[in-house]
Amino acid sequence: MAEKVNQTQNFLKGIVKENPVFVMLLGMCPTLGVTSSAFNGLGMGVATLFVLLMSNIVVSLVKSQIPSKVRIPAFIIIIASFVTIVEMVLEAFVPFLYEQLGIFIPLIVVNCLILGRAEAFASKNNILSSILDALGMGLGFVVALTLLGATREILGSGSLFGLKFVPEDANTFILFILPPGAFIALAYLTVLFNKISIKTT
Amino acid sequence: MSKKKDTFINMVVSLFVITIISGFSLGFVNDLTLEPKAKAKLEKKVNALKLVLPTFDNNPVEDVLLIQVENIKVSVEVYPAYQSNEFVGAAIIGSTEKGFSGLIKIMVGFKPDGTIQNIAVLEQKETPGLGTKMKDEKFLAQFRDKNPASYNLKVTKDGGEVDALTGATITSRAFGEAVQMAFDEFVKNNGSLIRLKN
């Protein structure tokens, strides 16, 4: 893997060209599950970003020490450790977010975005590229989740980050807060995102 | 930087080392967060108590009474409140399994005569946007300063006096039931609570 990777390109690809949610459609479970509000989406995105960054760093550091037959269990242990750390820290210091995200925090372990990056990128590249890759991909995930959460919150409860802009008893599209709304909103956002990103490149 | 060979001993050693390191680091973080975690939980409880009780100067969390109830597995928690050694009310955790998605747990604060001071929702899994509106001021206001002895906690559809939430009758019913349960416990234990401090 001696080829020189263009680091800026490496960082930016995660946000637009290979956006994990809108282009690669990875990590759909938390994407659909927790984005009932912009704040939840942001929280989940940041938690995932942290796990992705740490696991990419560690995997990239120990890659030469792991026999390839056991690499997947080794990666999973590394990822699961960081997820558990995130879970404990959230419960201790941000109990509000911990309650909102609930079961989806332990489920970060099986988010294929993280294992995918560890397997496809970090285990073949040096630490600097791995960090940039994780930051790019993680930010792409944060942006996508926040965007999806914001869309659903605006349509579903008439508020943004908890700030209401419709009267208390106004009728909103409750559908968008419910699970089916997640699929609908995700589909339309994906279309929009791809349309715009194809036009600009 | 050549990869290690896939020999048996290599695989065992590398997995062993990774699990050992992750085990120790998790234990370390767990020790670090143990205290803040307990504190956060306690704080949540105290905040709910402050919300539902009149002003008090004792520590209800320390004075908690656990009461065993026949048809419920877990014991009911009763938090008595005192202001300069005089009984000013009690907060009781009422719960029901009959919510639209199972468990609803609420904390009901009573004045000594059984009038409801305030209600706080502790745990619920109701439908967002419909059942979760039971946390809203508009719904909770119906219960304030009402005495369940004379105020029927059933929804109007069932002959009670509570206006059900739109689209969430089951939630409203369950909510009323949980309040009723808390009230029943309050009536049963009222005497012992007043005597406790004297």
Automatic annotation (TrEMBL), chain A:
- Where, by residue number, does the polypeptide cross the bilayer? 21-39, 45-62, 74-94, 100-118, 130-150, 170-193
- Name the domain of life this protein comes from: Bacteria
User: Is Methyltransferase among the key words of this record?
Assistant: no
Q: Name one GO biological process term.
A: electron transport chain
tRNA-binding listed as a keyword: no
Q: Which GO terms describe its cellular component?
A: endomembrane system; plasma membrane
Lipid bilayer topology: Multi-pass membrane protein
**EC annotation from Swiss-Prot or TrEMBL:** 7.-.-.-
Chief place of localization: membrane
Identify the keywords attached in UniProt to this record, alphabetized. Answer: Cell membrane, Electron transport, Membrane, Translocase, Transmembrane, Transmembrane helix, Transport
| Quaternary data | The complex is composed of six subunits: RnfA, RnfB, RnfC, RnfD, RnfE and RnfG.
Relate the protein's function as given in its record.
Part of a membrane-bound complex that couples electron transfer with translocation of ions across the membrane.
Q: What is this protein called?
A: Ion-translocating oxidoreductase complex subunit E
| Organism of derivation | Lutibacter oceani
Automatic annotation (TrEMBL), chain B:
Membrane topology field? Single-pass membrane protein
GO annotation, biological process: electron transport chain
Q: What is its EC number?
A: 7.-.-.-
Query: Which cofactors does the annotated protein need, by name?
Result: FMN
User: List-wise, which residues carry FMN phosphoryl threonine?
Assistant: T169
Q: Which parts pass through the membrane?
A: 7-29
Which InterPro entries has this protein been placed in?
A: FMN-bd, Ion_transpt_RnfG/RsxG
| DNA damage recorded as keyword | no
Task: Cite the entry's keywords alphabetically.
Answer: Cell membrane, Electron transport, Flavoprotein, FMN, Membrane, Phosphoprotein, Translocase, Transmembrane, Transmembrane helix, Transport
Q: Please provide one cellular component term from the Gene Ontology annotations of this protein.
A: plasma membrane
Q: Which residues form the FMN-binding domain?
A: 99-186
- Predominantly, its location class is membrane
Q: How would you classify this enzyme at the top EC level? A: translocase
The superkingdom listed in its UniProt entry is Bacteria
* Pfam families in alphabetical order: FMN_bind
Its annotated compartments are: Cell membrane
Which GO molecular function entries does the Swiss-Prot or TrEMBL record give? electron transfer activity; FMN binding
Q: What does this protein do?
A: Part of a membrane-bound complex that couples electron transfer with translocation of ions across the membrane.
Q: How does it assemble?
A: The complex is composed of six subunits: RnfA, RnfB, RnfC, RnfD, RnfE and RnfG.
Q: Which family does it belong to?
A: Belongs to the RnfG family.
Q: Which HAMAP family match?
A: RsxG_RnfG (MF_00479)
Protein name, entry field: Ion-translocating oxidoreductase complex subunit G
